[in-house]
Amino acid sequence: MTQAAFLLFVFLKQFYIKSSGSVGIADLCMAFCVIFLVLDIVRGKRKMPSVTDLKREKFLIAFLICVVIINLFFTIKDRCLDYERYTLYWIFNGAAIWCFLELADKDFLKKLNGVCKINILTQAVIWVLGYGRVFTEYWGPTRYMGTFNDPNQYAFYLFCMILLISLYACNYGDRTAPIYYCLGVFFMSISKSTGIFLGLMLYTVGMAIWFYVRYRSKWNIPRKTEMTLGVVLILAAIAIVIKIFPGPDFNLKNTDYTMLTRIQEKIWKVLYGGNSTMLSDRGMDRVALYPRYLLLGAGEGNFNRFLKAAQQNEIHCSFLNIWFSYGVIPNVLLLKWLWEKMRKISAVEWIIAGSLIVESFLLVNYRQPFFWMILLYGYIRQKNQEKTASTLSFQQSDDIL
Predict the structure, then answer these.
(1) What is the DSSP letter of 175?
(2) How far, in Å, CA of 6 to CA of 12, rounded?
């Protein structure tokens, strides 16, 4: 029941019935997962978290305590309950992380891989049947968003499914993974999310290099052929970059509204709009306008108080938003916990997790449990391998006796 509740959360998270940020059926499934996990511990089916287990997560626990204290302080100070909504988001994610760490053995990861594939196929069926939602820009063009309320949410969900499938395939083997990669890329392209495209591009290039390095000895490719191929790829990349660079008179509203033209718009903002335009577009101008909050934190919520900023919204950069909201010490605690979990993961796991981390510098993703599941996947894999090795060692010693 505990595993089923978690997997139902992964499947149902793609169906948005209410507005974004509201409690959905998927979130209730995660709540039931926590309840079932606690009941399993009470009934003796699972071990009670030991002192060692709690010490292993001490930096995350300390960070969450800081979140509660800082948001409570600003709730009282500003007499605004909006801060507590973000506190609940963090508590929800903390609970999801705990469930994932407790449940994710090899068998569970296999089931999770299957659900991720079903999710991509579900979105494909919805698109074929014409039931997907469409987001319309204020001047007319559209972006596809499937069963979501926002095209960026839709693209991020598909991106996470691709990354989770890839993590399983690279660690446990799955020859069908490229099929779901191609399906996911197609649907992400019609969402026209440039932030997700950056992560996807880094993931694709990184995986191609990893795959080539891993199998080049088997292919026995001549050195001259490798050098020729490398030169061709570099020239092709330069040609593509030159081709997509927009001119100073570029205007998105006067072109076809595609993923390519949206990428050109972002490049135009960097080249001709100045740093201030790009910073304000991502909400990062707030850091320059209110730098004092980087020290002790501004609390997360009640964004209307930042009147000098171009947008009264959250900063569209995950780790910068955490730093600005909670200050130096909580930010260091979170990064310390994350580094302890990721420092020993494999090269391919770094490629996959790294593409998500880079993408998160353009969007706010840390409120999604999938974000943490991907970053913790390598740690889980290591823990499962150590547990298996320990079991085999015990069995061998028992056989000798």
Answers:
(1) T
(2) 10
Helix (H) or strand (E) segment spanning residue 266:
helix 259-271
Structure tokens at 109: 């990861």
In the block, tokens 């595993």 appear at 3
pTM recorded for the entire structure: 0.91
What is the C-alpha to C-alpha distance for residues 122 and 161, in angstroms, rounded to an integer? 12
Q: Name the one residue in this structure whose structure tokens are 């594939």.
A: 117
Structure tokens at 399: 């056989």
Return d(Cα 284, Cα 320) in angstroms, integer. Answer: 8
Do residues 204 and 233 make contact, with C-beta atoms less than 8 angstroms apart?
A: no
pLDDT in tens, 142-181: 999 999 999 999 999 999 999 999 999 999 999 999 999 9
Side chain identity at 137, as an amino acid letter?
E
Q: Does 223 or 61 have the greater pLDDT score?
A: 61
- φ/ψ (deg, to 5) at 108: -65, -40
**What is the maximum span of the chain, computed from C-alpha positions, in angstroms?**
81
d(CA 292, CA 249): 38
Q: Which pair of tokens denotes residue 395? A: 């069995």
